[in-house]
Amino acid sequence: AGPFTVTCFHPATFQLTGFPGQEAVCHWISIAFCVVYITAMVGNCTVLCIIWADRRLHQPMYLLLCMLSVNDLGMSLSTLPTVLSIFCFDVIDVTFDACLAQMFFIHFFSFMESGILLAMSFDRFVAIRDPLRYATILTNPRIVKIGLALVIKSTSMLLPFPFLIKRLPICKGNVLSHTYCLHADIMRLACADTTVNNIYGLFTILITYGLDSVFIILSYVKVLRTVFNIASHEQRLTALNTCASHICAVLLFYVPIIAVSVVHRFGGNAPRVVHILMSYAYLFVPPVLHPIVYSMKTKEIRKRISRIFSRDFM
Predict the structure, then answer these.
(1) What's the pLDDT at 267?
(2) 3-class DSSP state for residue 248?
(3) Which of 4, 34, 102, 196 lies at a C-alpha separation of 20 to 30 Å from 308?
């Protein structure tokens, strides 16, 4: 028997990998991850509570921010069980089905985040291009429908992935490259033709990250055209300032994805730790920094946080 007991050509468990060769500082790494998770949880929950408590913030822009915060919490909770089990409890095994479930949710929340950022770019475009009709174009029920559409789209796109993995015989070992399960990482252990997995994986990436990023760029091209047509210099700066937090959120999401892709394809000689750190940046940086960026750049949220802290210290 043992951990590599095979059922239908699938290992009973996968073994996850932390930072190879860094076992001596494992406790420090666990502390760092605990800080990251606590920061992400507290930050996103604070944003949600502030928007929930203030009815004046029940507007499309802030509802979309709520969706982003809920999504970031989902992403953090998706990776938390295996990451902390490795670094805090030295448990590296995860069952086959649990691994597939984690794979699904990690990719699901990543796809959702891309769609939410696209919706937020459309929100900024409408707010600047047609402010008088903003409230009638982007109503709260319409925002809810956009959220449901994103959930349906992400679910339907990702539902085939577990079945595509299950049809493959896994016989090249059971050791994965990260502290969490990803489609490409599991697929490389298969000893059968993975063409269908590769083609469908590329298709989903182009449909989500590819199209979403193109539409986000087009939205901001139109935003810039509108802003440059404003006569007043102060009004231009005000209009651009309303987009600052969203632009930061887009960069925090897409820059790590691009960096991971570049390192994966052209960084063959880079140390293993570079590949690992880049993959962590892709999953952990946005949930930690999004609430910080929006707290600093959004006046209403910043005022509410300042009021809370001033009340606590009085």
Answers:
(1) 64
(2) helix
(3) 34
Nearest-10 Cα torsion for 224, 228, 230, 233: 110
Question: What are the distances in angstroms from CA 99 to CA 8, 12, 77, 219?
Answer: 16, 11, 14, 37
Q: Which residues of the chain have pLDDT under 50?
A: 1-7
Predicted confidence at residue 78, as pLDDT, reads 96
Q: Which two tokens stand for residue 312?
A: 């606590």
- Which 8-state DSSP code applies to residue 7? E
Cα separation of 95 and 112, whole Å? 26
State the pLDDT at residue 4. 43
Which CATH number is 6-312's, of 1.50.10.10, 1.20.1070.10, 3.90.1150.10, 1.10.10.10? 1.20.1070.10
Nearest to 290 by CA among 135, 138, 75, 91: 75
CA-CA distance, 78 to 105, in Å (whole number)? 6
pLDDT in the model for residue 314: 54
